Amino acid sequence: MEITGPLTHQIRNVLRLKPGDRVILLDNSGWEYQVELGEVSRERVAGHILQKRLATSEPRTKITLYQSLLRARAFESVLQKCTEVGVVGFVPVVAARCIISSLEDIGEKRIERWRRIILEAGEQSRRARLPALQPALLLPQAWEEASRGGLTIVPWEEAGPGMPVQEKSNSLRSLLSGAQPRPFSVNLFIGPEGGFTPQEIDQGQRYGAVPVTLGPRILRAETAGLVAAAAILYELGDMG
User: Which terminus of the chain has fewer Cβ atoms in its 10 Å neighbourhood, N or C?
Assistant: First the structure.
């Protein structure tokens, strides 16, 4: 097995690995390889595959996070931490209260940085498959896309008795414990700073989205996705 490109710098200069050291390499298709290094130079790293096996790091529950756009560092933190916890896909969303009001405001340089953050977080957490970064969508488009498959969940700080939407909300736990059959695909919608508007929640319900509460405390927009994703994976048996 031979490695070239930026990964050689990480192996040689960051991890300071030497010939004879053993590493685990992932191919982004679900396989992992135990490799004994034979050559470590500036231009290439070569090694011998000792074992090939299916990786066990990927959750059975496939969560796609529809994250409303946030301030730069906050959104990047969401990508990093939710990659680590096990989210399988990200869809940036433009909602009414987002600091970005149009898809044209999302430049290619920003998208490349997001991809790099996902890659680095995936390597750190030993993900067998990198989460997919999908093109950004306006919220109405996102509701429609999510309605094509899976359980759509939207934590909302105004959810609860007397909420101004079509149905009384559930707690996240009660929704998942009562779901039959077990949902293997979950679309998780998280609002921007200030949250989704009642009109946006009403629109989401028309596409089958289920508003839920995450408890009595109000979470920041950059925290809610991580907490909800971890809770979903735990409740559905994907956290060990």
Answer: C
Burial of 41 (0-12, 13-18, 19+ CB in 10 A): exposed
pLDDT per 10-residue tile (average), the chain, 240 residues:
78 82 78 84 85 83 97 96 98 94 89 96 91 96 97 86 51 86 94 95 96 91 97 91
Q: Kindly list the structural domains of the chain, giving each domain's residue range(s) and its CATH number in brackets, ordered by start.
A: 2-54 (2.40.240.20), 62-235 (3.40.1280.10)
